[in-house]
UniProtKB/TrEMBL annotation:
<keyword id="KW-0411">Iron-sulfur</keyword>
<dbReference type="InterPro" id="IPR036010">
    <property type="entry name" value="2Fe-2S_ferredoxin-like_sf"/>
</dbReference>
<dbReference type="InterPro" id="IPR001041">
    <property type="entry name" value="2Fe-2S_ferredoxin-type"/>
</dbReference>
<protein>
    <submittedName>
        <fullName>2Fe-2S ferredoxin</fullName>
    </submittedName>
</protein>
<dbReference type="GO" id="GO:0009055">
    <property type="term" value="F:electron transfer activity"/>
</dbReference>
<feature type="domain" description="2Fe-2S ferredoxin-type">
    <location>
        <begin position="2"/>
        <end position="105"/>
    </location>
</feature>
<dbReference type="GO" id="GO:0140647">
    <property type="term" value="P:P450-containing electron transport chain"/>
</dbReference>
<comment type="similarity">
    <text>Belongs to the adrenodoxin/putidaredoxin family.</text>
</comment>
<dbReference type="InterPro" id="IPR012675">
    <property type="entry name" value="Beta-grasp_dom_sf"/>
</dbReference>
<keyword id="KW-0479">Metal-binding</keyword>
<keyword id="KW-0001">2Fe-2S</keyword>
<dbReference type="GO" id="GO:0046872">
    <property type="term" value="F:metal ion binding"/>
</dbReference>
<dbReference type="GO" id="GO:0051537">
    <property type="term" value="F:2 iron, 2 sulfur cluster binding"/>
</dbReference>
<dbReference type="Pfam" id="PF00111">
    <property type="entry name" value="Fer2"/>
</dbReference>
<keyword id="KW-0408">Iron</keyword>
<dbReference type="InterPro" id="IPR001055">
    <property type="entry name" value="Adrenodoxin-like"/>
</dbReference>
Length: 106
């Protein structure tokens, strides 16, 4: 298990156990992180699993693909540290990852 820390837009921390190989989006769904809607189920076609990665973790993630960057154009309140959680695979180096969820995905 890999510890993933979700901070809601209201500042509430939820610690979740993620499985190596699943995505952050899948972990969020299993742990009732309601601010990650994931309407397309992880197909990278809707941008409703938008999250903000805390700066100290950005370099530990694989770079976003061109497709992910294109989909982020449809997300609300995009920041420099924005990512789509459906595109981030959990591995051991992400143990303790901290990310924030936006108030709205639309």
């Amino acid at each position: 298990m890999v510890n993933i820390n979700f901070i809601s837009s209201k500042g509430v921390l939820t610690k979740a156990d993620g499985l190596v190989g699943e995505t952050i989006m899948e972990c969020a769904q299993k742990n009732d992180i309601y601010e990650i809607e994931a309407e397309c189920g992880g197909g990278c076609t809707c941008a409703t699993c938008h999250v903000y990665i805390q700066k100290e973790w950005i370099e530990k993630l694989e770079k976003p693909t061109e497709m992910e960057e294109d989909m982020l154009d449809f997300a609300t309140n995009v920041r420099e540290n924005s990512r789509l959680s459906c595109q981030i695979k959990i591995d051991d180096k992400l143990d303790g990852l901290v990310l924030e969820t936006p108030e709205s995905q639309f």
